[in-house]
Structures are given as structure tokens and as C-alpha cells.
Amino acid sequence: RMARWMFVAGPCLAAMAFGFSWLIQLGSVTVTLVGGSYNPCVVLYDTQEAAVIFRGGESNRQAVEDFLLLHRLELRTVVDLRQGDPASCGLEPAQPTVLLEDVPPVGVKIQALDGVPLAVFVQSDGAMAIAQVHSCTVAANTGKGYWEDMPTIGILAAGPSRPEKVDCNLLLTAYSYDWLAEMDTRVLQGPAPAVRLWEEKMRLERNFA
Questions:
Q1: Three-class DSSP category at 170
Q2: Which of 2, 9, 52, 183 has the fewest C-beta atoms lying within 10 Å of its C-beta?
Q3: Chain CA centroid to CA 91, Å
């Protein structure tokens, strides 16, 4: 009798668990690092779509595609933060990829996800992408740049180079860069560190994604 109950109830319980998980994510945006630990991509996603800040690497591209497939996400936005004149990153978003060479001196602003505006700024030795997720700013950079007078960033997705004159409340990183010791702030580090942001709060996880 117990076996028969489990046979009937098992699929129902699994469906309930999936539905509950989906409800938990509803209205939230998750920020995570995907790809190689030294220079990973940054992925922001809700229950249906994803935006990717791409920082280079064929293995990173493949890791992002695998991540999207695993989470059943449509790729809406790609910001290619690689400097120089790189070849196509190979990702195919629903809207045109943002390339640094197309960004005007005053920067450019796009809608990365529904309710998530994202701005890109370029300097001679660095670039920065900043997304507004609810009340929190999320940023990623390539190169150093000199970002004087920039307001404190909520979450900085760390990369090999420390952006000059940038303060943040939380560093999200998969690698122990030397420059992390210079930052007097909280650090969330792990193989797949992630932050889930709701309108009024955020949840930190080391391997949430």
C-alpha cells in the first residue's frame, strides 16, 4: 500500500516542489558568475530570461550556453566587455549585442531584463557595465579605468583587474585575486557564487546557481 501511495504521490510531490521553487524565484533576479574562475562571465537572470556580461574565452561561452540550457533561460541581452577589436563572442541574444566600439563617450543604456536597466561606460583603459536590480547596483569591469565620483556599487563582480576609485558593498568572486586584500568590504567567494535579489532584500549563496 505504501509503495502504491509513493507511486501516485511521488510525481505530485515533485510537481509541487518545482512549483514552489518557481514561486520563490518569482519577482527576483539572480546574479552569478559562470565560466572559468579567473575571468568569468556575469549572468543576471529571472525566471525566463538572462542577460550576460561577457569578458572573453571560448570555454566561458560554452559554459554560458550550458547554463542557459540547464536553467531553461532565453538569452535576451549580451554586453561584450572585451577591449580591442575581438571577434564575435558567439552568443546569440534576442536583442543586438552591445559592443564597446559602439558605445559613445557618454555611455549607453539598455534594458537588460524586464525592470533591469543597464548602462555601459568605456574609457581608454577600462570598461564598466552597471545594472540596476531593484534597489541594488550590480557592476562588472574589464581593465582598470578611473571611475572617480562613481557612487558606491552594491555588488561588484570581480575580475582580474581592480577598477580604480570604485567602492562596493559586496564583492562576488570565484578567484582569490591579489587586489581583493586591498578592498575593505564583504566578499562572497566560491565556484559559483550567486546573489538573489528581491525588491526588499537579497540572499547570498556560495553555490546557488
A1: strand
A2: 2
A3: 15
pLDDT tens, residue by residue, 22-34: 444 557 999 999 9
pLDDT tens column, 44-78: 999 999 999 999 999 999 999 999 999 999 999 99
Classify the phi-psi angles of 118: left when phi > 0, otherwise alpha if psi is within -120 to 50, otherwise beta: beta
Ranges of beta strands (E only) in the chain are 29-34, 41-45, 49-54, 74-80, 98-99, 108-113, 116-123, 126-133, 136-143, 153-157, 168-173, 186-189, 194-197, 202-205
For the entire predicted model, the pTM comes to: 0.85
- Measure the CA–CA gap between 146 and 21, rounded to whole angstroms: 41
Residues 17, 192, 196, 45, CA torsion sign: negative
| Rounded to 5°, angle at Cα 119 from 113 and 125 | 135
Q: What is the DSSP letter of 185?
A: S
Task: List for the chain the helix, strand, coil content (%; round to 5).
Answer: 20, 40, 40
> Which region, left, alpha or beta, applies to residue 145 given φ > 0 means left and ψ of -120 to 50 means alpha?
left
116 and 29 Cβ atoms separated by less than 8 Å? yes
